[in-house]
Amino acid sequence: MVKNLVTMSDLSKEEVYELIERGLQLKNGAKALERKDLFVANLFFENSTRTKHSFEVAQKKLALNLINFEASTSSVNKGETLYDTCKTLEMLGIKILVIRHPEREYYKKLSTLNIPIISGGDGSGEHPSQCLLDLMTIYERFGKIEGLNIVIVGDIKNSRVARSNYNILTRLGAKVRFICPDIFADETLGQRVEFDEVISEIDVCMLLRVQHERHDGSAIFDKEDFHKNYGLNKERYVKLKDYAIVMHPAPVNRGVEIADELVEADKSVIFEQMRNGMFMRQAILEKIIKDNNL
Question: Which of 6, 36, 163, 208 could bridge to 154 as Cys pair (CB 3.0-4.6 Å)?
């Protein structure tokens, strides 16, 4: 049973595969749950295109009543705490909150709420719904996760996607390694390798956006240098296995993490990830509704 989904640790391996299967069923035309009497709200305190609108489409496909919340015009700007904002919405009859917030582990302050929370990302912490859509995309292509050889490339230190994916992919039996410059390393995670030494043996090349907004400004960053040493260029692309896939959570810095002409190349599933995101978020919402008897 899943009360909240704020970290991948909230899910067992069985629940992860249950969500993947349900996402694929929905993608293949299965009828979705409909709850016209249920009110939900999305609270996004950081910019978002894919996650925010993907949740909105998923919610409307489930016939949920979506309450528009705009952080820029809310009482947060008068000093109201996140807890008081969320508690207010609970008292107004909102039954599910989807929250993205720049503070890592913001959800710990909301533990006494009586309604479920789905995290749309917590600072540089985790991003469970993105992780699940990534897993769905990998499973859809390979029919398995165990035994796959995966590299995560780029700004590891500041990436909630890297953290979520590393933890669950490792639990599911994949081999996960990292490629990044020293300034973007997180030594608490797994092994670092050199791009050109492993490029021909990997099944999944998962690229990450360089998150300039989370840097303190002390590091010198050169786009051309990064692309040469850590980006997916044409020379590296042709060395990938024929059936390998290229992923990116987006938004993409074209010409930095990946060459512009490779974003929609044959091995790229970047836009398919976005499509899968809506189905996976439907599956997540369905599970939260069912497990919480809403």
Answer: 208
